[in-house]
Amino acid sequence: MASGLATAWLLASINEALHFELGTTPALLLGFAGLCLIAVAGEVASDLGNSYVGQQAVAALRTELTDRILSAPIDRIERFRTHRITAVLNHDVEVLSNFTFAFSSLAIALAVTLGGLAYLVILSPVMSLIAAIALALGMSVHMRARNRGRSGFDVARRLQDELQQHYRAISDGAKELRISRPRRRHMREVRLGGTIAGIRDQRIRAMRTYMSANAFGSILFFLVIGLLLALQFRFAIPAEVLSGFVLVLLYIKGPLQQLVGALPAIGQAQVALHNIAALEQAFANPEDGLLAPATSIPAMKRIELAGVTYGFPAEDGLSFHLGPIDLTLDAGEILFIVGENGSGKTTLVKLLLGLYEPRDGAIRLDEKDITAASRDDYRQLFSTVFADYFLFDEVIDSVDERDLARHLERLELTGKLAIREGRFTTTDLSTGQRKRLALLLAYLEQRPVVVFDEWAADQDPTFRRVFYTELLSELRAQGKTVVVISHDDRYFRSTDRLVLMKEGRIVEIRRGEEAIGIAERGDA
Length: 524
Ligand SMILES: Nc1ncnc2c1ncn2[C@@H]1O[C@H](COP(=O)(O)OP(=O)(O)OP(=O)(O)O)[C@@H](O)[C@H]1O
Description:
The protein is of the alpha/beta class. The protein folds into 2 domains: 2-168 and 196-282, ABC transporter transmembrane region fold (Up-down Bundle), CATH 1.20.1560; 302-521, 3-Layer(aba) Sandwich (Rossmann fold), CATH 3.40.50. It contains 15 helices and 12 strands. Residues 78, 312, 320, 339, 341-347 line the site of adenosine-5'-triphosphate. Residues 1-268 form the ABC transmembrane type-1 domain.
């Protein structure tokens, strides 16, 4: 602000010096030098301070957003969709980051403009009224352009979400696209082509609106200056006032255009802020302390699900309703959950793990109800290998070398990889081997309950047998409780209890040997 005001003051001094009868005096020169110094020093300080504060704010925003995602309810994350999260984290935060760099020069431009206008009012209130009317007209056109432009950027931003989705499809689905020419062409011409062209057209349209408003603003400027020149004799405008007006108007045209030129960036920053706010709001979580330091692993004797229900919201189709579910899980047992595809096995397990909050009913650990405050401690009971597991390459648990060697041998991974500086030396393994590595991580976590969702689905027959007949009972022998979602009816005899699910409900619970009956009847 100081820099901008000093610049406006400089204009006033120059105009004064032009009409000073005694010529330039030392005082005038000294004042001129002082104002130059303030203008330049203010600009430098403002730029430096701005980039520091701006980048601090952007770093804080990045941390805040990733914290939100780390603590968000899992069902909200699933509903929000990964590509939309990526678009907010990459695109929207970057737009804001870029905007912060422009901020100091915009503040200076604003101060120069305001200071210049203030000088005009001092020079001639009547003539500045004419200038003010022209300016107000220009502003109103710009405001309308801004609103239209912003809605264009809004549409373009929504298309950007789609683009992220297509980007994922062309990298994750590279193999499928390479095999199928029709799908590849459809992806290029229809999906990618349509979205890319849509973003281009929306942006061009938005920019065109801004540019037309800009041109109108320039014309207004010259009209006002022309009008003043034309009227100078009719209204006997003093030379000092006229030159002051022309000088200031010509000078502030630059900063004013800079301000107006920033409107598209401001429009995009507003859209970005709106998206960030939407993500923050969607991911608010009633659970506190999810980012607190790790505590010791809890113990369990019995977990009880009493009248637990859950429902997915019906967005495009029929909603799925689970429960009411009554089920207990005792320490040291092996429990199989079986049932047709879509019967609700994974959903039940997500409730058991405390990943979904039950709509009704209660989950109890050793007869104590799990609440929002205790849910994250409760989750620490479990190690998991989900059907759609994610393999982290970092090992954060302390590893006993002999233990590791034993596990690697057990999982037939000896010589394939090692742990160096807390990381697996490679995760470039076959599909089945990667899944064994996920199992190894679950082992290393040393939690009391281990949950496998269709773990054996991509294992060879020999290792599948090892898993069901040896590994599970080894885990039980170590005192662990094991929950297995399975379609392998040949191995249902490996369980202590078997839960059969159908259409979101438990329809049968069998003990030990009785489970074989289900397999033989082929009910599951
Ligand atoms: N994220 C989701 N949003 C909406 N509905 C979902 C979601 N996940 C699952 N569903 C619905 O819930 C039902 C149960 O899904 P779930 O994954 O629990 O089945 P499952 O028994 O584990 O099936 P599978 O054997 O195929 O793994 C499905 O029919 C599906 O329609």
